[in-house]
């Protein structure tokens, strides 16, 4: 998004600041300011905004010798520092007329569980790699102690390492396949809970808890009245 297309909110104090200098600015700048400082134009707008580049041009003009002299000749004199970009943008909002997507914060428990599962997966892969390397080295060492030839020791060590690697991969696939349904169920429960919370918050027809009086239990529904036996009345009877 470029500066000439960027809008800022035209707050009341900003509009009053611009009205004070609208008539003493150069003709072109005064014409550009007129639609934004006019009360008729802004009252009909849902969100009062002003382009960023117009404010920037006002700020640049007030720093010129001509602009500074024009501000000092006003009655009372106007402070050029009040027309710096920092002062003009103070309290304003960027692009208030636009509707940005709402920010959805992540669930801390979900993020913590995801991080824990990631650490477990990494530890499983590292353990598998160490198991393959350890099995190959142990087989090589055992073959050397039994007096096997080099080629047979190599073949035996590679075969043992491959068998362990295949076993580790199979176990990892089984573990991952069991983990995914659990993750899906947790997410479904979280979504269902959030939907229920939303329904509870906006359900106007939900009845309030029943209120108990001396000898009867009443609810908000006038047509429903549940009698509750009073032990004191039973004793008196």
- Structural class from helices and strands? mainly alpha
Contiguous low-pLDDT stretches (5 residues minimum) are 199-237
Q: Distance between the terminal alpha carbons, to the nearest Å?
A: 84 Å
Strand tally: 5
Number of helices: 9
- Biggest beta sheet attributes: 3 strands, antiparallel
> What is the mean pLDDT?
75
Fraction of helical residues:
55-70%
H/E series, N to C? EHHHEHHHHHEEEH
Main β-sheet, spatial strand arrangement: 3-4-5
Strand content: 5-15%
Radius of gyration: 38 Å
Instruction: Choose one word for the global shape.
Output: rod-shaped
Describe the secondary structure blueprint for this structure.
Elements: E1 7-9, H1 12-19, H2 27-37, H3 39-44, E2 49-51, H4 52-62, H5 65-72, H6 85-89, H7 108-145, H8 150-202, E3 211-212, E4 216-218, E5 225-227, H9 231-236
Antiparallel strand pairs: 1-2, 3-4, 4-5
Helix pairs in contact: 7-8
Tell me what you see in this structure:
This protein has about 240 residues and is mostly helical. It contains nine helices and five strands; from the N terminus they run E-H-H-H-E-H-H-H-H-H-E-E-E-H. The strands form two sheets. A three-stranded antiparallel β-sheet has the order 3-4-5, with no helix packed on it. It starts with 6 loop residues before the first strand and ends with a helix.
Which key phrases capture this entry?
62% helix, two-stranded antiparallel sheet, 3-stranded antiparallel β-sheet, 237 residues, mainly alpha, 6% strand
Describe this structure in a few short sentences.
With 237 residues, this protein is mainly α. It has helices at 12-19, 27-37, 39-44, 52-62, 65-72, 85-89, 108-145, 150-202, 231-236; strands spanning 7-9, 49-51, 211-212, 216-218, 225-227. The model is unreliable at 199-237 (pLDDT under 50).
């Amino acid at each position: 998004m470029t500066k000439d297309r960027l809008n800022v909110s035209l707050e009341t104090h900003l509009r009053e600041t611009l009205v004070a200098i609208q008539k003493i600015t150069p003709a072109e700048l005064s014409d550009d300011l007129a639609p934004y400082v006019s009360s008729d134009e802004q009252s009909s707008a849902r969100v009062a905004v002003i382009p960023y580049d117009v404010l920037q041009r006002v700020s640049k003009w007030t720093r010129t010798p001509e602009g500074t002299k024009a501000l000092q000749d006003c009655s009372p004199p106007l402070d050029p520092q009040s027309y710096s970009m920092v002062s003009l943008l103070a309290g304003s909002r960027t692009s208030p007329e636009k509707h940005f997507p709402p920010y959805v914060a992540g669930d801390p428990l979900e993020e913590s569980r995801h991080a824990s599962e990631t650490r477990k997966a990494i530890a499983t892969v590292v353990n598998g790699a160490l198991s393959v390397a350890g099995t190959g080295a142990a087989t090589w060492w055992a073959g050397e102690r039994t007096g096997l030839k080099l080629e047979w020791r190599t073949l035996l060590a590679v075969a043992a390492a491959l068998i362990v690697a295949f076993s580790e991969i199979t176990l990892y696939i089984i573990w991952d396949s069991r983990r995914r349904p659990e993750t899906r169920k947790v997410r479904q429960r979280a979504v269902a809970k959030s939907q229920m919370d939303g329904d509870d918050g906006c359900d106007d027809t939900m009845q309030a808890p029943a209120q108990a009086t001396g000898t009867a239990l009443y609810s908000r529904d006038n047509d429903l009245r549940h009698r509750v036996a009073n032990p004191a009345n039973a004793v008196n009877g």
